[in-house]
Design goal:
Layout lengths: L2 H14 L2 H9 L14 H7 L3 H10 L5 H10 L3 H8 L15 H7 L3 H9 L17 H12 L5 H13 L4 H18 L1
Length: about 190
């Protein structure tokens, strides 16, 4: 069988969580770093599809030596359990997706507070929060996420100020962003 077919089979087995087939293919000489036809690694498939046992096996078989690949896997992690597994392998926390967002940015954006707590408790570096998060999501939600992330309570009068601005100028994202930054600055100074 040619190498590209073996690589596809290897990545497909990882995607499906077929550990026996992955072990068989690795024993048969498939490179752990074999990519599929779209450029994905087996680890990424395992993580995206929630196969924790598969992900741990692949990490132990060699992916742990490539922090940037583990960092991208962390971007794909959909469950706190997967985040908990990946942070043990010292991922590169500054790896970004195509939109310039780190794994932590995505956790904040999606409101994955349990994953954020696991990440923060791991002692990994915390890249600065990407303000691109402010685009395309409601500023109030972003304010709630920011306050949860920073562990700082935002007074009700400041929340209302942002709510009024969003209501009065629903499409002026620059105004929303300026007000959001003013509020977060005020709260940070008073904390």
């Amino acid at each position: 069988m040619n190498q590209s077919i073996l690589n596809e089979n290897f990545n497909f087995a990882a995607r499906m969580g077929d550990l026996a087939e992955v072990i068989n293919l690795l024993d048969g000489g498939v490179d752990i770093l074999a990519r599929d036809d779209v450029g994905w690694y087996a680890l990424w498939h395992a993580v995206e599809n929630g196969h924790e046992q598969m992900a741990e096996y692949l990490l132990e078989q060699g992916f742990k030596d490539f922090p940037e690949l583990v960092g991208f896997a962390l971007i794909l992690a959909a469950t706190p359990a997967m985040v908990k597994l990946l942070v043990r392998y010292n991922p590169d926390c500054y790896v970004t997706n195509d939109f310039g967002m780190t794994a932590r940015d995505l956790m904040v954006n999606c409101g994955e507070y349990e994953s954020i707590a696991i990440y923060d408790e791991s002692g990994l570096p915390k890249p600065p929060l990407n303000l691109k998060l402010l685009r395309g999501i409601k500023r109030r939600c972003c304010l709630d996420r920011w306050s949860a992330l920073m562990g700082i309570a935002v007074p009700a009068e400041l929340r209302h100020r942002l709510d009024r601005l969003i209501q009065d100028y629903p499409y002026d994202l620059k105004k929303h962003k300026r007000e959001f930054l003013k509020i977060t600055d005020e709260v940070s100074k008073s904390a």
